[in-house]
Amino acid sequence: MRTNKGFSLVELMIVVAIIGILAAIAIPNFMTMQLKAKRGELPSNVNGIKTAELAYDAMYDGFVNAATNGAITLSKVAVPWTTGVAGWTELPWAPDGEVRGNYAVAAATTDFAITANCDVDADGIPATYTASATVGATQTSLNDSF
Question: N or C terminus: fewer CB in 10 A for the chain?
Fold first, then answer.
């Protein structure tokens, strides 16, 4: 007696359809997580800049103004940190690698305001994080469409 081993065409088509449905669900979620991870550099860098400002204040009794770190076009592509920009040379902070955002510090006598912007979804509307001497990194604007 002869037995047929293997899958029928119908069974194979059902498996392909199930894989297609799972991929349709998983790929957009994966893309969303990628963009969130790319945007995640901002709050940690803002908190690092805040710590550096507080350390500078402890040493020199004042805060440092730091201009926007160069003419970085906001996108999901990381670019090298611009060195030699006014204020950043005095401030004891620099990123560990490339950045996807613009960072600036506006200092006053008793406080400072850090602003960070990025646009990882390339819609032209940046997500913004801010911090001050008393407040940690706070998301003030999130317009990324994901």
Answer: N
